[in-house]
Design a protein that fits this description.
Distance between the termini: 16 Å
Structural class: mainly alpha
Oligomer: single chain
Shape: globular
Order of helices and strands: HHHHHH
Largest sheet: none
Number of helices: 6
Length: 127
């Protein structure tokens, strides 16, 4: 469905921008709002999960990287929101801390790449 394709591309690019260019994203009026960031994270996770079940020209594999990037990026944004809201401390040696907190710029770069490549090559296998 074209709607989920569009939503996947937009959320991947937006989350990638928010994670890679964190200082510039916080200067933008709408992206500094914590509720907007929460909604974007939820939409990215839901879109990634729904893309697993929406069959396109090549089932599952045609959207594999974009839905994984969407789920990972959305989870990173949701985790940031939760940590800031509840003042939770996550152990530095835990898997979640190593992947989603310490390497959030890498997750953002993957989201940007997945969104950009999925926009340019929508029907290519493994993109």
């Amino acid at each position: 469905m074209m709607q989920f394709y569009f939503l996947s591309v937009i959320t991947n690019l937006l989350i990638g921008f928010m994670l890679v260019f964190e200082k510039q994203a916080e200067e933008i009026k709408y992206l500094e709002n914590k509720t907007v960031r929460l909604v974007i994270g939820i939409v990215a996770c839901v879109t990634g999960i729904v893309k697993i079940f929406v069959v396109s020209s090549v089932p599952v594999f045609g959207d594999f990287i974009p839905f994984v990037a969407g789920i990972a990026g959305g989870f990173t944004i949701l985790l940031e929101y939760y940590i800031k809201k509840k003042d939770v401390v996550i152990k530095e040696d835990s898997f979640i801390s190593k992947v989603f907190i310490a390497n959030k710029k890498i997750v953002g770069i993957v989201c940007l790449a997945a969104g950009g490549l999925h926009f340019l090559f929508p029907k290519v296998l493994f993109l």
